[in-house]
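Lab notes, practical 5.
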Amino acid sequence: MDVGASLTLGVYWTSGPMVGGDYIRWVGSYMKILAELDELFSPLYIVPNASEKGVGILSEGVDFDAAIISGLNHDIAYVGPDGKSSDFTVQSTSKLGFYSLLSTTPISDASTVTISVDAGAGLPNSTSRLVIDIPAGVLSADKITQLFKLTVQFIKPRWARVWDKALQAHPRQPVGNISIGWLTYFSDKSISELLPGDVKVQVLDDGLIVQAADVPPTLNDQTCVNAILRIFNALEPSGVLKKKA
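Output from the prediction step:
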């Protein structure tokens, strides 16, 4: 069954500084996971900026590395191996990290899934992010659950979640804390001991996924909203939700 709400999948972790070549290989590995999951993600397009048509990156004959490089922000400062500012190379680092915007269509429309990656910053304690915006009716609940599982297994983040932006503040959760979504991933498996016994939990090698309901909530689905709030109320007193990514 296709999901009737627009969802966002967000993953947050600390990766430390990366060089350009490692970033390109990392993005490429993840794109292949997406392409194998569902034909929706093949081909994928790199978006140089919001006003330009995307460039196919998984098509036959396309230079993948060159396509990813074309979509990087070339206005920020990159640093070469000698510690001096330079144009982007595969040996470059950046205090601000590397950013890519990808999509499932060359020109954005109501069915377009977008994937934004912001990773590899050289600043201390910088948080890397991967965010996927999924329009209503594009993927089934089962497929989104698979996508979430594969993503957290690949990245091994501190935490991650899938949520409906319309429910961002309903039920209200403190800004700055780890927020509970329809699906929430924690790297700390001991969190399972704090949850009510009937909450659905899937244990992975590096963490666990907490699922609030069988399908994503809507504003009219008070049962699922209450389930999210119940999970939040079980975890909040322990302080585990105050820990940053």
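Observations recorded by the TA: The first helix runs from residue 20 to 37. The two ends are 32 Å apart (CA to CA).
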